[in-house]
Amino acid sequence: MTTTPARPRPEFRNINALSDLPTYRLPAAGWVSILHRVSGVLMFVLLPFIIWMFDTSVSSEFSYARFKSAFNNGLGFAPGWFMKLVALALIWAYLHHFIAGLRHVWMDVSHAAVTKEFGTTSARVTLVLSLLLTVVLGAKLFGLY
To answer: What is the Cα–Cα distance from 56 to 63, expressed in whole angstroms?
Structure first.
């Protein structure tokens, strides 16, 4: 009895981070996974800013006027456009984290949703939807409509 291998075994090697990683193409689901973590960290790090915005906007009429002034004229060393960019980053982080979370819940609930095709399609929808909604809300934030 002779044994012949059906196909050769794959050869594994160590990767060189400087030459191999820049050429690696991450799939859409990988980008969504990484950005889901990034958006969660961003929301956590900016939690004091979120609490300040909420507290300042609902405390009194005077504090609400100060809140509006911070976004129009700036606050301390930060100009108003920078405050709006931080708020826009929070808007993106929330939207992306929420939509990606819904995607994960759908994959957990529906066993038919755990396919490569669904993963690719839902990842692309997540990226496009979060960016599109961020652009729409960012246009409102910067007063374009």
So the answer is: 5
Helix or strand or coil: residue 75? strand
Tokens of residue 68, six digits: 């509006």
pLDDT of residue 138: 96
How far is residue 62's CA from residue 76's CA, in Å, rounded to a whole number? 18
C-alpha 125, offset from chain centre: 13
First to last CA, the chain: 79
Which two three-digit tokens encode residue 3?
A: 């044994």
Domains of the chain: 27-141 (1.20.1300.10)
Residues in the chain predicted with pLDDT less than 70, given as ranges, are 1-5
> Looking at the whole model, is its pTM more than 0.85?
no
